[in-house]
Amino acid sequence: MHTPPSAVCRPSISTLVRDDITELTKANLSLSFDGRRVTKFAYSQATDRLSFTPTSNLSYGRHTVEVTATDGANQSTNKIWSFKVVR
Predict the structure, then answer these.
(1) What's the structural domain count of the chain?
(2) pLDDT tens digits, residue range 3-27?
(3) CA-CA distance, 55 to 74, in Å (whole number)?
(4) Residue 49 forms beta bridges with which residues?
(5) Domain assignment present for 66
(6) Which residues of the chain have pLDDT under 50?
(7) 33: domain range?
(8) CA 16, 22, 25, 31: dihedral to nearest 10 degrees?
(9) What is the rounded distance in angstroms from the CA atom of residue 6 to the CA atom of residue 84?
(10) CATH code of the domain containing 32
């Protein structure tokens, strides 16, 4: 069992998402955090930046982020990365 950190641990998670042909919108993107679909994230077309801040403190340990982008030709690609919250 993980106990939550005593300090607030809600990092801003962000990444660049762009396509050379399609002007992506938020509708072209999906985000999962620790295996759960996230619908409340921001995407700026001006900067191609997707960002998300968890609504509750993160537990110690590994956390996984997955972003999927689908272009105008209905081709998808995804990126998965992990990070750790340590004591």
Answers:
(1) 1
(2) 554 556 899 999 999 998 899 999 9
(3) 31
(4) 16, 44
(5) yes
(6) 1, 5
(7) 13-85
(8) -50
(9) 16
(10) 2.60.40.1220
Whether residue 68 is contained in a domain is answered as yes
Instruction: Report the distance separating Cα 31 and Cα 63, nearest Å.
Output: 13
Beta bridge partners of residue 60, listed in sequence order: none
Q: How many angstroms separate the CA atoms of 15 and 43, rounded?
A: 10
- Whether residue 77 lies inside any domain: the answer is yes
Q: Which pLDDT belongs to residue 87? A: 83
Copy the structure tokens of residue 2. 């993980």
The verdict on residue 21 lying in a domain is: yes
Sheet hosting strand 61-70, strand order edge to edge: 36-38, 29-33, 61-70, 76-85
Angle at 83 between CA 68 and CA 36, to 5 degrees: 45
Strands 76-85 and 61-70: antiparallel
